[in-house]
Specification:
The chain has 12 helices and 10 strands. By secondary structure, it is an alpha+beta fold. InterPro entries: AsnC-type_HTH_dom, HTH-Siroheme_Decarb, Tscrpt_reg_AsnC-like, Tscrpt_reg_HTH_AsnC-type_CS, WH-like_DNA-bd_sf, WH_DNA-bd_sf.
Length: 307
């Protein structure tokens, strides 16, 4: 495999890493039909070529007591939009897409409705896709001070070996193993990657946003059964919103899939986004960790995290 040429094996490896970047190379190899050594070599090459920009952690803000505002903005001024977002809260993700449109998420501490009105005033052409208060969300973390200590270390390197984390945190390998297993079982916490969509070459990454009228779990399952081979990462659901992260071998097939999804009974609206760049700041998580360290209790209260 040349340094800058991707094939189907690479895409399968990337798809696994986006779901859980801590998956061992040997385990990835069994899933895709390669040796662990070959998988490691391919991951190294994708890091060097910039396809994989970094390994990171994604935590759903409501699980730590925060609200979240999802919006799209018809703009290519990423710097200007981020400045405005920071007047409201902390950026959760910022994704410039083809067609000069930007998909964003803002983490807010409280008063989601008030902050949403502020978004509309600051960014007049913003379209609010969804707002989610911590109390409305199904996501829960219930983390201890020890969990936050390990999380702090994992944010620096999500693929760090357990023995290394143990040395850095002065915690037992048993405690760290148990905590990582707890993280991996929690749908609100994900070990993932940031990739560069521009370097996927003959492959196209895209997201389908679907508004669902009823039985979102059944609809998601039906879509998984038909299009699961094209899933890029775990679908996101909240209220009536379903977001599918997918990839195809060309933009036309991506559009065909979007149209097929649109025709599924129960889906009332779909929209497709083709990302040009992805950023997912973790400042808000780092601040949460600092606040948790000040807690006098083993189980850190939500109010202590996002104060």
């Amino acid at each position: 495999m040349k340094l800058n040429k991707l094939d189907n094996y690479d895409m399968k490896i990337l798809a696994i890493l986006t779901i859980d970047c801590r998956t061992p190379d040997r385990q990835i190899g069994k899933k895709v039909g390669l040796s662990g050594v070959s998988v490691k070599s391919r991951i190294t090459k994708m890091v060097k070529s910039g396809v994989i920009q970094n390994f990171t952690m994604k935590i759903e803000p409501p699980s730590l007591g925060y609200g979240i505002i999802y919006l799209t903005v018809p703009s290519d001024d990423e710097v200007g939009i981020v400045k405005k977002l920071k007047l409201i809260g902390e950026p959760f993700f910022v994704v410039p897409c083809l067609g000069d449109i930007m998909a964003c998420g803002i983490v807010v501490e409280k008063d989601v409705e008030q902050k949403t009105e502020l978004v509309k005033n600051l960014i007049s052409d913003a379209r609010i896709v969804l707002t989610l208060d911590a109390k409305e969300s199904e996501f829960r973390a219930d983390l201890t001070k020890t969990d936050f200590k390990i999380l702090d270390q994992l944010l620096k390197n999500p693929r760090e070996k357990i023995d290394s984390i143990s040395k850095s945190t002065k915690l037992s390998t048993k405690t760290i193993t148990r905590t990582i297993e707890k993280f991996e079982k929690n749908p609100a916490i994900q070990f993932t990657i940031i990739y560069d969509p521009r370097k996927l070459e003959k492959f196209v990454a895209f997201a389908v946003l679907a508004m669902v009228q009823n039985d979102i779990k059944k609809i998601k399952k039906d879509i998984e059964n038909e299009f699961g081979d094209h899933f890029w990462q775990v679908p996101f659901t909240a209220k009536e919103l379903l977001v599918l992260f997918m990839y195809s071998d060309n933009i036309y097939n991506a559009d065909v899939m979007r149209h097929k999804i649109k025709e599924i009974d129960g889906i009332i609206f779909t929209e497709v986004f083709f990302p040009k760049k992805i950023t997912m700041p973790t400042n808000w998580i780092i601040n949460s960790i600092k606040n948790a360290a000040l807690s006098q209790k083993l189980h850190v209260p939500i109010k202590q995290i996002n104060r």
